[in-house]
Write a structure and sequence with these properties.
Elements (H helix, E strand, L loop, with lengths): L2 H8 L1 H8 L2 H8 L4 H28 L3 H29 L3 H5 L5 H16 L2 H25 L10 H7 L2 H17 L5 H27 L6
Helix pairs in contact: 2-11, 3-8, 4-5, 4-7, 4-8, 4-11, 7-8, 7-11, 8-9, 8-10, 8-11
């Protein structure tokens, strides 16, 4: 069994809870409260600013030109594709560009991104990938699940564009490339090294669930 398949088994219960989360289900059914989606758009926008830095660090830590090129593409696509979707949504939802740019990350958002940046700056390339992968991989799983369970979800006047982007073959191919790269990088690694990568993967998968919960319910500094 490939390492990525082992991770998939270990994370199954966490991702199943994500798939059943009312925010995720609401994206597919169209029942998601707009105020929750607005909160998501603002928080995810500032999340993506830090997430992009992980791809830049991937370029730095890459060991060959092909891998450098791939991470450079991920960086470009995030800054100019994924974040452009958020900017378009913001305009539709009445969020000004200044308001979007000045959004302060929630405590969970801040903890999540700082965890990944710490791993990326201090760890190996495979550690970087194992910490950022749950976001991309789970988004692929979520969007595919929504497209299958709610066939008309991609046509929803508000949430449809989100489903279309993340269920697209292009986004899916990027996630699969990262999965294949991680499987290649871990060849010959010791059980101790694999355990560290697994811990990163599980930790950021838990952060993914907490992020969905935070944008659905709201959650800011208590004092």
């Amino acid at each position: 069994m490939k390492f990525s398949q082992q991770l998939n088994v270990k994370v199954k219960d966490i991702w199943e809870k994500i798939h059943q989360h009312p925010f995720v289900v609401g994206l597919g059914s169209g029942a998601l409260p707009v105020e929750s989606f607005i909160r998501y758009m603002k928080q995810d926008y500032v999340f993506l600013i830090d997430y992009s830095k992980l791809f830049a660090l991937g370029v730095v830590k890459a060991r060959d030109l092909d891998t450098m090129t791939f991470f450079a593409k991920l960086l470009h696509d995030t800054l100019n594709g994924e974040m452009e979707l958020h900017r378009t949504y913001a305009a539709k939802l009445g969020i000004t560009h200044q308001e979007l740019e000045e959004t302060k990350p929630s405590p969970i958002n801040l903890a999540y991104t700082r965890y990944m940046l710490n791993v990326a700056q201090n760890g190996s390339l495979e550690e970087l990938i194992s910490s950022l992968l749950p976001c991309m991989w789970s988004y692929r799983e979520i969007s595919t699940m929504l497209a299958d369970n709610y066939p008309n979800s991609s046509e929803h006047p508000l949430y449809g564009e989100w489903v279309k982007m993340y269920s697209s073959n292009e986004f899916g191919s990027l996630a699969m490339w990262l999965i294949d790269l991680l499987d290649w990088l871990v060849e010959g690694k010791s059980e101790r090294e694999l355990a560290i990568l697994t811990d990163h993967f599980l930790t950021t998968s838990r952060f993914e669930y907490m992020f969905w919960d935070m944008v659905y319910e709201g959650g800011d500094w208590p004092v």
